[in-house]
Each structure stands twice: as C-alpha cells, then as structure tokens.
Write a structure and sequence with these properties.
By secondary structure, this protein is α/β, with parallel strands linked by helices. The chain has one domain: NAD(P)-binding Rossmann-like Domain (Rossmann fold, 3-Layer(aba) Sandwich). The protein is built from 12 helices and 15 strands. Strands 3-2-1-4-5-6-11-15-14 form a 9-stranded mixed beta sheet, sandwiched between helices. The chain has a two-stranded parallel sheet with strand order 7-10. It has a two-stranded parallel ribbon with strand order 8-13. The protein starts with a strand and ends in a 15-residue tail after the last helix.
C-alpha cells in the first residue's frame, strides 16, 4: 500500500489503520520532514519496522513517482497529500492547483501506468459548489480521478468529507489555544456552520468505501448534523470551566476569503445514490462526464507558472462553471498576496 501525505492527520491515521490488515509493505510518502519523522517513529515503536518504507518527497515529482511505483509496485494507493488551508490557498492559487490538481494527476497517471488495483483520492466537502480556490482545486482533482477511472484496470475513486476534529490547523485546536491564552476566541460569523467527525471514524469509512468502489465514484461520508461554529466555541469555553462573554470574549471577525457560511455534501443537481452502507453515499455531479485530459493539464500547468493569479482563476472557472470565487484574484491582492514564486513544494502536503 502507498499513502501520500503520510505525516498529516488523515495520512497518519490511514497508516495506523491499514497496518492492522498486515500489508506486505506500507510505503509512506510525505514532503514534511518532521511530520514523517514522527509517524515513522510511532509506527516503528508499535512493531511495524519490517514492513515500512518512508520516502520524503513531493507528489508533483514525476520522476520520484515513477521510481516509487517501479520499485515497490503498490497495489492500493491512498492519496491524502494536499494543501488544505482555505485562506492560504486564496492568496496562492497557483500553488493550490500545482499541488492539489496537478499532483493528483501525476500520481493517478503513475498508478494507472503501473496497474495499481485501486486508487482512492481524499477530497473535501469544499469541492461542492466551490467558493474557494482550495475547494476548486480539489474538485478539479476529483475530475482527474474520474478521467483515470479503470484505466489499465485501476479502480480510481474519490471520497468527500468535512472537517476532522483535532487535525492540524483545525478550529477546535485554535479555539483551545485562544482559551488557554485568555481569549478572545475568534469566530467568523455567529451563524456559520460546519460538519465535523473524528479522524478514526473518517478513516474507517474511507477504507470501507475503497473496498466497495468499482471505479469513477465520488463517495460522500455521512457527517451527521452540521454544527454552529459559535456553539462549538461557547461549549469549549464552558468545558474549560469558564463563562463565554465574561471570562472569555467571543469576537466575530467576518468571513474570510473563499469561506462559505455553510458547507454542503451534495448540490441540488447532484444525483445521490445509496451504497448499501448507512454512512457512505455516492454523488454523481454535473461535471462527472468531463474528462480532464493531458492537454488541459498542460494548460493548467502553464497558467500556474504565471506570476499573477488572474489567468489560473479564469482557467478554473472554465473547467468548473459552479466555481463562485473571485474571478480576477483581486481579493487575494487586497489581502497582501505577493506574485507567485517559481517554486515547488514548500508547505504541507
């Protein structure tokens, strides 16, 4: 098995859970050295040293991927590597597309070239009617995976879900840090809602979805009832033995670039199908028939190398008519973004 983004919250839990099934070898790919150090250390100390291979590298590195698949020939690929922070990607749209979309293309191309049995892409509820660059880059990646479905017999599929409790950069961790610091706790809007689930539950459902996929599906996990972020903040303050508004101030900061008031798991136009599992559904989006071909990837690659964000945002809009983000990248400019540097990596996969 191969897990990309193996040092992240999702990738690390994938590694822990797939090892329970005694794979012959688990190849872990991660570009964050420190994150890789800690997950490898944890799994070695748990007794898995004999079947682990830790590779520090980037999913956009096509030579590395070719060597990896040629050497280890993974049968199952879990693609969790991603740039996931919405405001950061709003001001770095070129990097979002390079990493989340082009990186997925490179990995799927390698997986199908070497005839992996299954390829599962970890997507997000933010890919539904995306208002952010991050969500749009993930939606493009879903379309990439759809285009590769069953190429050379590889069953390629995607899984969407919402926020994971306790993940790096998650709102729960931020709130807790703010409470320990005496406040204020910052909430974007009193009516904003989000879906939440635990990482353990999410990975269990991801593994089950992977086994049932035949190729081309977008699975959607049952996230339960959306939670008001304001209620979450207030409950955390109370759990710390304090009183909201008295001991800890709650400050409303306004919606940030690319953020939605609420997230969606399905669009009204999506065809929703049951899978037989009560917590796993399947979505058939409007764009599911669009195959993102190599020519389109080449175009996105060229646009991602330009110094200004406008062209890549226009390229996104042409491929995803439902994208509702800033068409000219002006919002990002107002928030102090700088021209995209010609660089690879740099940031968490």
């Amino acid at each position: 098995m191969l897990v990309t983004g193996a040092g992240g919250t999702i990738g690390a839990e994938l590694c822990r859970q797939v090892l329970r099934y005694n794979p012959a070898r688990l190849v872990m790919l991660e570009n964050h050295n420190t994150a890789m150090f800690y997950i490898e250390k944890e799994l070695v100390e748990a007794g898995h040293a004999g079947r682990l291979t830790a590779i520090v590298g980037d999913v956009k590195d096509e030579v590395l991927l070719d060597n990896l698949f040629k050497t280890y020939g993974p049968h199952i690929v879990f693609h969790a590597a991603a740039h996931k922070h919405v405001p950061l990607m709003e001001t770095n749209p070129q990097e979002a597309v390079k990493n989340n979309t082009l990186g997925t293309y490179a990995l799927a191309e390698a997986a199908t070239k070497y005839k992996a049995e299954r390829f599962l892409f970890i997507s997000t509820d933010k890919a539904v009617r995306p208002s952010s660059v991050m969500g749009a880059s993930k939606r493009l990646a879903e379309m990439v995976v759809r285009a590769f479905a069953e190429v050379n017999g590889t069953r390629c599929m995607s899984v969407r879900f919402g926020n994971v409790l306790g993940s790096s950069g998650s709102v729960v961790k931020i709130f807790q840090e703010q409470i320990l610091g005496g406040g204020p706790v910052t909430v974007t809007h009193p009516e904003a809602t989000r879906y939440f689930m635990t990482v353990e539950e999410a990975i269990q459902l991801i593994l089950q979805a992977c086994t049932m996929g035949q190729g081309g599906e977008i699975f959607v996990l049952n996230m339960g009832t959306p939670v008001k972020v304001d209620d979450l903040a207030r409950n955390l303050i109370v759990l710390n033995g304090l009183e909201p508004g008295k001991d800890i101030e709650i400050k409303y900061t306004g919606m940030r670039a690319g953020e939605k008031m609420y997230e969606e798991l399905f669009r009204p136009s999506d065809v929703r199908k049951d899978t037989g599992h009560p917590d796993i559904f399947m979505a058939v989006p409007e764009e599911s028939d669009i195959a993102i071909l190599k020519e389109q990837m080449s175009s996105l690659r060229l646009l991602s190398e330009l110094p200004e964000p406008g062209p890549i945002l226009e390229g996104i809009r042409k491929l995803i008519p439902a994208y509702t983000g800033d068409p000219e990248g002006k919002r990002g400019d107002r928030e102090g973004s700088s021209p995209q540097r010609h660089r690879e990596g740099g940031g968490k996969n």
